[in-house]
Amino acid sequence: MIHSKLARWLVLYGVFLIFAGVVGYLSNPEKAKTALLSGGTFGALSILWGVLIAKGFSWSRKAALITTGFLSLVFTWRATVGWLAVLDGNSNKLFTAFLISLMLVASVSMLVGFRRLHLVSKM
């Protein structure tokens, strides 16, 4: 039961990352190719972790936790850079900073979910 809930949340999280990558790319196709690539890659990976967890591969919980933790760190860094640019007067970075911040919130929420499901201490 716990693992199926985690699996569903990871799939939804992955879909969100893909969606955010597409939105980021569409907001600036000349400069945001990495948004599409990273959103698609890590979104697909999160979906894969969810599917593997649902199928009973216990090692995939740890992989999902590590991936989500890594993304939380990256999104913290990228959101900070984006908001500092906005504070410096670069209003072109506002949408990007906001989108990355949403991705950070989703990632941290996933980490909280891992903790609430008591999966971190069982790994």
What does it look like?
With 123 residues, the chain is mainly alpha-helical. The protein has one domain. The chain has 4 helices and no strands. It has helices spanning 2-27, 33-54, 59-87, 94-116. The longest helix has 29 residues, at 59-87.
Question: Layout of helices and strands, plus pairs?
Answer:
Layout (H helix, E strand, L loop, with lengths): L1 H26 L5 H22 L4 H29 L6 H23 L7
Helix pairs in contact: 1-2, 1-4, 2-3, 3-4
Distance between the termini: 17 Å
Give the topology string: H per helix, E per strand.
Answer: HHHH
The number of distinct helices, counting runs of at least 4 residues, comes to: 4
Cα shape: elongated
Number of domains: 1
Defining key terms:
123 residues
In short:
The protein is an all-alpha fold and 123 residues long.
